[in-house]
Every structure is written in C-alpha cells, then in structure tokens.
Amino acid sequence: MFTVNYHTHTERCHHAGCPDRQYVEFAVNAGFKVLGFADHSPQIFPGKYYSDFRMYPYQTEEYFASILALKEEFKDRIDIKIGFEAEYYPDIFPDLLKHLAAFPCDYLILGQHFLNNEFDHPENPRRGSTEYIFAYVDQVCAAMRTGYFTYLCHPDLPWVDEFTPAYYKAMEKLIECAMETEMPLEINCLGIADHRNYPHRPFWELVGKMGAPVTVGLDAHDPYMFVNEYAFTEAQKIIDDYHLTYVEPVLRPLPKTF
After folding, report:
1. What is the pTM of this model?
2. CB atoms < 10 A from the CB of 164, how many?
3. What's the farthest any 2 CA atoms get from each other in the chain?
4. pLDDT in tens, 105-164
5. Torsion of CA 177, 170, 139, 157, to 10 degrees
6. Phi then psi dihedrals of residue 47, to 5 deg
7. Residues 6+ positions from 166 with CB-CB distance below 8 Å
8. In whole angstroms, what is the distance from residue 29 CA to residue 8 CA?
9. DSSP characters over 161-223
10. Crossing angle of helices 201-210/229-241, nearest 10°?
11. Which of 48, 111, 183, 240 is the most exposed place for a label (fewest CB within 10 A)?
C-alpha cells in the first residue's frame, strides 16, 4: 500500500528496539522501495541537562556508520536514506546544525514535542490548553520557515478535550504555513497503531478542505510497523475520506557548512 517511509527510529533513542539490520530486512520483505532512518536527533544542550529520549551527540558517528554500511549492502534491494527527527529549539538550533554538518545527512523531519528550548522551560503548558495550542503552532511555524525540514511529523500531536473555534484557528495557521513552505503534513501510523490521541480526524478534515499535501510516516520504533496492515489501512482511509493529496516528500539535505 505504501512503499516509502522516512520515519524510522533505532535503539539509540532509548525507547525503540531491534538492531538496524532488522528494520531493513522487514522493510525489504514488506516491499518498501525507500527506507529513511530518522532517529531522534542529538541536541547540544548547555550545561549538564540532557533528555533521555534521543541519542547522545557521541552516538552520531556510529549511527551514520551503521546505516551507511547497510545502505551499501542493500543498495540493489532498497534505497536507504539517513536523517533525523528533530525538535526545533530556537536557542540551540544553530548548534545542532553545526554538529550535523560533519555528516552526510539526507534530511530532517520536524517532530515538535516540547516548547521553548526544553532545558530552560521544563514545564510546558498543559497539552490541550489554548495557550499550549497556539504556542505549539507558533514554534512549529518558525521551524518550518527555517527551510531545513522536509516535512512535519504528527502535526496534530496536541490533544484537546473538544474541538473549539480556537483550536481550528490555530490549526488553520499551521496548515497555511505548511502550504507556504511546501512542507507535507504526516499522517502518523504509530499514532494509529497505538490508539493515541492522534491522528485527529477533525484536523485532517480541515487539511482536506484547505488542500495541503500529506504524507504517511510509520514512526517505526520496531520493525513490525512495516507489516502493520491495520495502520496502513486506517491511514489510507483518512486520505480517502477527506480527499487528501498524498505526496512522497522531496528531501532537503543539510548544507555541509554553517
């Protein structure tokens, strides 16, 4: 049903499992043509702060070495790309870009889970509050306008108790920004498989009305996501029900110098 996936995690993020090779083998056997690894990016935090759901900076070199070796080994069977799912933290984003410039990074996808710069505002507004929704949209729009990201992961991540006019106003702003910056919006298969609060069908109905392009990401934290027919079927239903325009993302490789 889907043969391209740019959203695959590895053990290095501390909440995914299985060796890199297993992801590749499952993807090949499932008929995928393109496999993109996009583990949670390292961040160059100041001081002693660090979060435990991403790889450490010292792991970056080994990450590239492992995936590039698999890319060469499987080159006749699948096209492997290597990138990251990154948060946009304005104060330290330049440091992340400088760190990644030393590596052949094919792309970044934007996966915003926290606001501000994480390390200096550890307590975010409650997800679902009007304050949180608008702060999330503002930060995501600022990230999209940097031009460094290929697409926006789980854009409907903030949960709401009810779909208020304020929610729709915020999400209209996000969708408009995605269209202006030519960034597809991801229907997230892990959210479907785990029965998370996303995908929000009201959000995708709005996407359909506004005409923004969409893509599908497995958000694979284990290789079995490559054979999760339930998730694929439900993602396709969202596309069909709201007449969404599915696209395969155009990668935006990072420059080699900053």
Report:
1. 0.95
2. 12
3. 52
4. 999 999 999 888 888 765 454 566 788 899 999 999 999 999 999 999 999 998 887 888
5. -100
6. 65, -145
7. 130, 133, 134
8. 16
9. SS--HHHHHHHHHHHHHHHHTT--EEEEHHHHHTT-S-S-HHHHHHHHHHT-EEEEE--BSSG
10. 50
11. 48
